[in-house]
Specification:
Elements lengths: L23 H17 L38 E7 L2 E4 L2 E4 L3 H11 L3 E6 L5 H13 L4 E4 L9
Parallel strand pairs: 1-4, 4-5
Antiparallel strand pairs: 1-2, 2-3
Length: 155
């Protein structure tokens, strides 16, 4: 019904007001979420690992040093690669029980090894990983990288 003193909006010939839907605020919110998740996610640092044909004659694959004398450390030799299986560590064709890992650490310290790359095999237990991390931490190894999903089988 019309108002007493005038006409209603419909009587004046105007259309009813329609509210539009703008996509710009939605796109702005999506870009803000995209930027937030990109900045808050952690990206794995990929680096090249120097692969060699094995230990040289008279050289230990586990410590990376010669048996008779210690070599001076170089930037390329500061990395040791170990395969961890149940109760033992393997490097190249040499295996060492985890119980002897503490006796290996002076050789690593003498060489200046500051990074160990550990590939846990399917047979490795959580306790094996914890033992390796504990021994390496107690002896001041600066970086330890665990590479999960190793397809290498272990005994």
């Amino acid at each position: 019904m019309a108002a007493q003193g005038g006409l209603s909006l419909l009587d004046a010939g105007q259309r009813p007001r329609r509210y539009g839907f703008a996509l710009t605020p939605l796109a702005d919110a999506m870009f803000q979420l995209l930027i937030f998740f990109m900045l808050s996610s952690t990206l794995s640092p990929y680096s090249l690992i120097a692969l060699t044909g094995g230990a040289a004659a008279g050289q230990s694959a586990i410590t990376g040093q010669a048996d008779a004398q210690a070599q001076s450390p170089s930037p390329d030799d500061a990395l040791v690669i170990w395969h961890l299986s149940r109760g033992q560590i393997r490097a190249g064709d040499q295996s060492l029980p985890l119980s002897d890992l503490a006796s290996l650490m002076p050789a690593l310290e003498q060489q200046g090894i500051d990074e160990v790359l550990v590939f846990p095999t399917r047979s490795a237990t959580v306790q094996d990983i914890a033992t390796v991390l504990e021994v390496l931490g107690l002896h001041g190894v600066a970086k330890v990288r665990l590479v999960a999903g190793s397809q290498v089988g272990g005994g």
